[in-house]
Amino acid sequence: MKVAITAQGKDPAAAMDPRFGRCQYFVIADTEKSTFEAVANDNLAAGGGAGVATAQALVNRGVEVVLTGNVGPNALRVLQGAGVKVYSTTAPTVQAALQQWQAGGATPLSQATVGSHFGMGRGGNRW
Amino acid sequence: MLVTVASGKGGTGKTTIVTNLALALAKKMPVQVLDCDVEEPNAHLFLHPVFQEEEEVTLPVPEVDNTKCNGCGKCSEVCAFHALAVAGGKVMTFPEMCHGCGGCAFACPQGAITEKPYRIGVVARGQAGRIDFAHGRIDVGVPLAPPVIRAVKRLARKEGLTLIDAPPGTSCPVVAAVKDSDFCLLVTEPTPFGLNDLKLAVGMVRELGIPFAVVINRSTLGDLRVERYCRQERIPVLLKIPFDKRYAATYARGKCLVEEYPDWVPAFVGLWQEIERLVSQRARAAGN
């Protein structure tokens, strides 16, 4: 199963990025093969629609689970439409997020945690 | 003639110039006011028009026929605005992101996409005494002002003077408002912000190739850097309105300067004559 974790770096030790559509990287873990693959997020600086485009990119890669901090309404609609399960976690690193999810500690999301444009920085990143 | 009143900085007095110029000239010639600051139109608060009709502004957004769609994803690939996504073999549309270009319908090999109108705002028109008035109002939450602005501008008449109240700034909505004008007045104030944003606005109108001049509002506040800049750049300053608490009170009551202080009428008539002169000068220069 492919699990995508929003990250600020390219490896399992990297810090998580709490944003979905505008995260810096995705570390995609293959839970059967125990391998990790890093993908730079092309939509980090998109003018608009970053959530939709990012969700589409993950769907196209066959990702089945997403671990992130916050996700907006449009991205969630696309992910849910493709049957991708989305979890929120505050784990500090990619590895820690994966372990938390595997232990059943990540929070499944059925609705958006933030509004549109949250990841653009205006009023964002307030924790 | 189409004259747009713009500014880099907001709150410098675009509407003050538009409404006073309109009132000062309305007795002499046909005048039309188009308030294109569709995110927060305010010229009606000063001209008090009686609105007679209102028309919806719509954008053509995609509608997918799921019996024809095979989920190939071409539509989502061509969309520069991420207004379509394919998930679980089905197309999802996000009309609030759509710019109405029609690219998705064009690219769909199945002919599964048709376009349906999606409301983004209204254009209201009416009469303020002898002044023909119209403004646009974008719906709350809609990010796309230019189509509403273009809908207002389609009402521009050929004869007489049409004055456009532009949005502040120098972004797409402002360009949509200023484009195709015969002349552009840039309203500024003698403050560091006023100067900084004036420079940006000057860059924009120069890029558009539209003749322009400057009006300095609250000219007795601040410093002389705006005037120095205009001199250096050979930009004519056509009018200066000093800061006066009484003028601010007039504005706050929803009244116009030329109504409460008729001594200002000749200044606005003179402003119009200067614009006419600069436009005809430019036309002659272009003809040579």
Question: How is this structure best described in words?
Answer:
Chain B: InterPro entries: 4Fe4S_Fe-S-bd (IPR017896), 4Fe4S_Fe_S_CS (IPR017900), CobQ/CobB/MinD/ParA_Nub-bd_dom (IPR002586), P-loop_NTPase (IPR027417). The complex is a heterodimer of chains A (127) and B (288). Helix content of chain A is 23%, strand content 22%. Chain A is an alpha/beta fold and 127 residues long. Chain A has a single domain (2-112), classed as Dinitrogenase iron-molybdenum cofactor biosynthesis domain (Nucleotidyltransferase, domain 5), CATH 3.30.420.130. Mean pLDDT of chain A is 90; it is low at 123-127. Chain B has helices spanning 14-25, 44-47, 74-78, 103-107, 146-153, 172-178, 192-208, 225-232, 245-252, 257-260, 265-287; strands spanning 2-6, 31-35, 50-64, 84-87, 90-93, 113-128, 131-138, 161-165, 183-188, 212-217, 237-241. A 9-stranded mixed β-sheet of chain B has the order 3-6-7-2-8-1-9-10-11, with helices on both faces. Chain B has a two-stranded antiparallel sheet with strand order 4-5. The radius of gyration of chain B is 22 Å and the shape is elongated. The chains are: A alpha/beta (127), B alpha/beta (288).
In short:
Chain A contains 3 helices and 6 strands; from the N terminus they run βββαβαβαβ. Chain A is of the alpha/beta class and 127 residues long.
Lay out the secondary structure:
The complex is a heterodimer of chains A (127) and B (288).
Chain A: E1 2-7, E2 25-30, E3 35-40, H1 50-60, E4 65-68, H2 73-81, E5 85-88, H3 94-102, E6 107-108
Parallel strand pairs in A: 1-4, 4-5
Antiparallel strand pairs in A: 1-2, 2-3, 5-6
Helix pairs in contact in A: 1-2
Chain B: E1 2-6, H1 14-25, E2 31-35, H2 44-47, E3 50-64, H3 74-78, E4 84-87, E5 90-93, H4 103-107, E6 113-128, E7 131-138, H5 146-153, E8 161-165, H6 172-178, E9 183-188, H7 192-208, E10 212-217, H8 225-232, E11 237-241, H9 245-252, H10 257-260, H11 265-287
Parallel strand pairs in B: 1-8, 1-9, 2-7, 2-8, 9-10, 10-11
Antiparallel strand pairs in B: 3-6, 4-5, 6-7
GO molecular function (chain B): iron-sulfur cluster binding; metal ion binding
Pfam families (chain B): CbiA (PF01656), Fer4 (PF00037)
Keywords (chain B): Iron, Iron-sulfur, Metal-binding
